[in-house]
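Record format v2
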Amino acid sequence: MEQYIIEGGIPLNGEVTIGGAKNAALGIIAGAVMADEDVLIENIPNVNDINVMLEAISEIGAKVNRIDAHTVVINGSSINTNEVKDEYMRKIRASYYFIGALLGKYNSAHVPLPGGCEIGARPIDQHLKGFRALGAKIDISGGSLHAKSDGLKAAHIYFDVVTVGATINVMLAASMAHGQTIIENAAREPHIVDVANFLNSMGANIKGAGTDTIRIRGVERFHGTEYSIIPDQIEAGTFMCMAAATRGNILIKNVIPKHLESITAKLLEMGNEVIEYDEAVRVIGAAEQRHTDVKTLPYPGFPTDMQPQMTVALALAEGISVVTESIFENRFKYVDELLRMGASIRVEGNVAVICGVKELSGASINVPDLRAGAALVTAALKAKGKSTLDEIGYIKRGYEEFDKKIAGLGGKITYISD
Ligand code: UD1
């Protein structure tokens, strides 16, 4: 069992450096297997989800050479199967990117289907709609998906919902289809742009990533490349909320401030100070903070992956705040844990009504999922007294050296593993 023990009540002060974007890296690693030459990827975050993804590509035969914690060379020329094992899908949903990558490169993929997860049902109908439009035959049996084609052909695809996963997955497959594919109502997240830039650096022809219309002209093959992943928007946002909630002062380095605008805007509305530099932001938490309302939306709206961390900050701000979760249906599970710490929050459906309190108190806490885990750590850092957090494996899926970074800012956090 792994736990964090946190002694709260200390404002976090100092500097922290943000790692590479996990969700970009997941798409990039899948895309890297589409080349038969060396692909060097820098600024890979050293977190569990990424390590599982690297294990999964090595399992299908790709060469994976981990040069150091944040640099890897991948070569897809030795891939010997198009079948991904169930254990990888169970550990990490993003293995569904193998469908797009293997279908694009080999016209065939056999991948177990992801189940529901902690934060909602998470269907993949839009991914399938995209693959079918490109001419793939999809057969679902025994909990697995078999996709096959005689050669993918470009299509005009309109997504019914804005989806990050389907946008990346279809972009992967279409980049090796015949002709020009157009994706309408595409997701615009920074990691979509990063995956597109990465594929283009291997010879793909993708235009419009970052807008809601992406045009992909298929190419026959990819060549090797060297690519550095963008900084993680959500890790940065998490430390921004930590500075606000603990009334600290943190310089958050290696970020793209433009990607943080929706978070910056909310922290400013609450009365905090946010100073932007070229590649850093400083957040100074105000002693007295005000309520505000937040609604999660696709980029450039407020990210659903920052909803729990912002809710914790608002739980400690004066007045009534309303947080509306519009992306995932089950993303307020952690609120029960906050109530046990003395927060005053009422959840009705996808809306949380928060009545700010002056103080939280330490408690024994169960972490329900990755981002909620980061939020509960934030609450524990502010709370009076000691908190014990269980199930912190979730946090390690997406945050590198979380406890060390927090300790470097003066937080009293101990990692315990038996
Ligand atoms: C990605 C991120 C996740 C983030 C989410 C939203 C990765 C590995 N994960 O997840 O951290 O919270 O984006 O920013 O990048 N939907 C459908 N049909 C589909 C696909 C999605 O109805 O075929 C719905 C989902 O249920 C959800 C919404 O669309 O309500 C957005 O999901 P999507 O953007 O696809 O999330 P993920 O790619 O799974």
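Residues 23, 26, 94, 120, 122-127, 161, 163-166, 187, 303-305, 327-328 surround uridine-diphosphate-N-acetylglucosamine (CB under 6 Å).
Residues 296 and 365 are 25 Å apart (CA to CA).
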